[in-house]
Design a protein that fits this description.
- There is one protein chain.
- By secondary structure, the chain is α+β, with helices and mostly antiparallel strands.
- It is built from three helices and two strands; from the N terminus they run αααββ.
- The longest helix has 15 residues.
Length: about 100
Amino acid sequence: DEAFLREVDKIGYRYPRGESYFDIISRLDPLVHELESYREPTLIVSHQAVLRLLYAYLMGQDRLGAPRIEMPLHTVIKLTYNGWTRCKEERIYLGPDVNE
């Protein structure tokens, strides 16, 4: 059963015709090196798996825990990163407002 196999090894499991978190890490490696050289604000819009891995890297978290990081919907996560110290994080919820 695919769900069981994924739960047992969430970072290494690869869906049929899909990619694992380890595959994504390999694909993101050149991008991360390039991002570290940027000096201007950068907006990243992506799938949750990619966002989890980038978030874990920039926040200095272990990549093995990345698949379990919560990425909220309808939210901009602003990370201020200088390349040397831990990122400063700000979350901006865009809606929808549940009271409406």
